[in-house]
Design goal:
Layout lengths: L5 E2 L5 E6 L13 H20 L2 E12 L8 E11 L3 E11 L6 E14 L11 E2 L3 H20 L9 H4 L4
Bound molecules: coenzyme A.
Length: 171
Amino acid sequence: MSLKPKTAKETLAVSTVIVLPNDTNTIGNMMGGRLLHHLDIIAAISAHRLCRRVVVTAAVNNVAFNYPIKLADIVTLEAKVSRSFSTSMEVCIDVYVENHSTGKKTKCNEAIYTFVAVDQLGSPIGVPELIPESEEELERYNAALRRKQLSLILAGKMKPHDATELKKLFE
Ligand SMILES: CC(C)(COP(=O)(O)OP(=O)(O)OC[C@H]1O[C@@H](n2cnc3c(N)ncnc32)[C@H](O)[C@@H]1OP(=O)(O)O)[C@@H](O)C(=O)NCCC(=O)NCCS
């Protein structure tokens, strides 16, 4: 597969779902686990659009359930790769709920996942560089290394001492 750099826009993946009774808890809110499932799938498609390889979820870095999503809500998930490294990619997903009368979309949740591209044996394999263009894409790109280091520390895969980008926050 080509390792030609791609823009963040080229990795955009969008899906829209409606919340049905089986998706909700006893007070009529969409269950967190159900949303995580949709997030994982749309983020994986976005990561795949960057590298055109099989991708696996390496980490769920952050999910903020800021507002409840209710039964019958129309929910749109928009995922874009925010930065790629050697074999891993960070994907940011924004979640919107659509007003039934006006069609206006309000952002209710956001999430950040890490995917790794793998070969047929499940070994990590190189991915193309990601080019951020908009102000928001640049902001997310610039903060991604810090988040990667934090995620690796929490997973016990990096020593805090080696987290150069994180340490800069406290200098
Ligand atoms: C993800 C996986 C392929 C990583 O394999 P590994 O042997 O740890 O490979 P590495 O240590 O070389 O890591 C590969 C990349 O992932 C990154 N990575 C690994 N764990 C990470 C974490 N918790 N957070 C952020 N990045 C992580 C590494 O930094 C590296 O990135 P880079 O090459 O871009 O610098 C492997 O752990 C795996 O197959 N996990 C299961 C995946 C899966 O089944 N997901 C579904 C969940 S049920």
